[in-house]
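ingest -> fold -> write
write: protein_1
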Amino acid sequence: MPTHGCSPRCFLRHATKFPLFAPQTVSIRVSDFLPPLRIVSTPDAPKKPAARTRKPARSDSRQQSLFTEESAPVTRKKPPTARAAAQKPAAKPAAKPATKPVPPAPPRVKKSSWLARLFVLLMVLALAAGSVLGAALWWLPRQPLQLAQPVEFTIERGMTLRQALEEMSRAGIPFQPELLYWAARLNRQGNHIIAGSYVAESGSSPLALVRMMEQGLVASASVRLGEGWTLRQIRAALRDAPYLVDDISSLDEATLLARIGAKEAHAEGLFFPDTYQYNRHSSALALLREAYRSMKTRLETAWAGRAPDVALKSPYEALILASIIEKETGPSDDRARVSAVFHNRLRQGMKLQTDPTVLYGFGEDAPPRLLRRHLETDHPFNTYTRFGLPPTPIASPSEAALAAAVHPENSDYLYFVSRNDGSSEFSRTLAEHNRAVNRYQRGKPAAN
């Protein structure tokens, strides 16, 4: 076997003839013996790596057995020479198809980032709305009302704050009931409102009206029941009182007593004279009930503190005597002395002979001035013809008259006559009394 001056292919061809190499398979890479390929590209052709081609295997079975599939010899095309490249015509560049420019895709936003931005936006809007609403709840209910004239509204018993505000709105007060409701709640007002009639004045705020209802500052009026007034005069005063519901004119005396809870048989003198404040549109019957209770309380107090030697048997008799003292004395300081005269007469069994009782007995037909014939006309209240006290009081006595009736002055006077100046002239005997009557009533000079 030649060993020198032989190429690798020649070596392989002769090596297979020797038994030493027959049973063995030798794997040789052809690339190990070939020089590295150099790729030359033309200026017009795109730069692409040269494709490697495999040389088809020979039909000689002995050569196929010498190579594995992995190490099969590969032949490469020789790169064209510079002269061949120069003689080859240049390739025309391929025409590129006209395509519309594709706009860039919008940036992709993550879902979590979008939700976060939405949450922040909603929070800002909520804060802005809350600020506007808070400002409205604070500012609007405190603005003064512009009213052409006072507006009156009535809150019925059992109404809630929302119902009361709706009633105010129906009465003509310009405000938003729902807004005022929440403003009052935020200010902790209006939890307990008091029924009654209220008046909204120009310049007052809606929130001030809520405080007014909560404190019970109802619109009120007043009526005066005078000292010494009869029941007929009291009825007339209540009928003419402003904003007072007249529910007593149609009631007779028995029904009136039952309605006010009185056990007495007659209503005359049972109502204490005073100036009474009442809520607008309240009942006259309720006011009479209050006046009756006031008189009852004062009479019981006076009777409990009476003098031990009074000539009276009951609190009602004290009320009758107090009404006579009230009509006889007026505002003078002679009440205790006049009371002493009546007590002395009652003790001695004398007729009281007091003009006011005679006039009261005539009722609406009472004469402007008493004459002798009037004094001689008998009726239950004529103390010139009958002994003792009249059957009922003749007027509503004052507290001073009640005190005088149960605390008479310690004296022995039996007569008195008016001096026409609010005071009285007192006498112990009939002769002294006649002289006083001639002087002060008949205008005659006193006899020596």
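write: protein_2
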Amino acid sequence: MNDSTNGAGTESAQLSPESGYAATSSMPTDLVSDTPPVATSPTIGPSTPADPSVVPPPSVPSAPSVPVDPTGPAEPVVPSVPTEPVVDPAEPAEIEEPDLTPVAPAPAVNGGGNASSPKPRPQFPDPPPLESHGPARILAIVNQKGGVGKTTTAINLGASLAELGRRVLLVDFDPQASLTIGLGIDPLSLEATTYDMVIDRDVTAEDIRVKTAIDGMDLLPSDISLSGAEIQLVTEVARETTLARQLEALRPEYDLILIDCQPSLGLLTVNALTAADGVIIPLECEYFALRGLGFLVDKTIKTVQERINPRLKIEGILATMFDMRTLHAREILEEVVGRFGETVFHTVISRTVRFPETNKLGEPITTYAPNSVAAEAYRQLARELVGRLG
């Protein structure tokens, strides 16, 4: 009995797939270990009889699984490319001063037209130290257009001249008192200012003079009261020479006196031009500033030269707030140089965020950022000015 059962089991296990399935699932595994795998039918519950006429489809062996890298194929290695340095948008990058002088028209080429040809910018050496001081040259920093850098030039040019061993007196002749505030002095704390100097005959320039934080540079401060001086001076005799009479007493003590004028061509500005030996005109490289320059030179300065102060001369036109990245600024500068030639300073003051910072802190850029491009530009201007004055 056992032998027949085992023989039947063996025979069932060796049937081909076409002959059906084994009648029992309790076949010993050691008897079928060498036979190929046979597909099995779906699971049939104990209550459902097996149907021998239903032949399931042959099983299809599945493809071997291939491990897949979840990260995907490696990206090709791209050589790193140098990028521009990251600049904080809250603080604009300082604009480098141009390496060339303002572009002036070159001689005509082959008899036709003018070609623009840049000239290498000259370098001005430090002047020799002075053995004595005075008498001072008085220079008025004038432009009837506001916001062109008059006060910034007065502060930083004065400080740069003091570094060269010159004794400098700054005169704040603007009711806004920007020069006074820009040097860290509160106008409201002063007992007397330039207003008292020009209105009260008992107050002299020496009475209102104050020391600044820069060694060798003093200040005649101003305040808002000066705005009423023009009306009060109208009835005065020789009202155009009021400032000149006051500064004359201080000439022997200084080498240079710089007057910061208000942005107008009123009586205060005429007083400054009458007292001055020369004029420095800061010029923003912008169209409207260029239009005003012609009126200042051809009308105001020429009228003062002819009627009041024949010794007055233009010492130089200073390009300020220059942005060499813009075509408009370069065109304006080229036009100014083409018209005024060597009157234009070789030094160009570029636009930088450092200047507003120094005005707020009340010190010149030569002490706030002594190694900056702007500080070196004003030192270059001071050397160039001393070279022009001789």
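write: annotation protein_2
The beta strands are 104-105, 116-117, 137-141, 168-173, 210-211, 217-220, 256-261, 278-284, 313-322, 344-350.
Confidence is low (pLDDT under 50) at residues 1-33, 43-48, 76-87, 89-118.
pipeline exit 0
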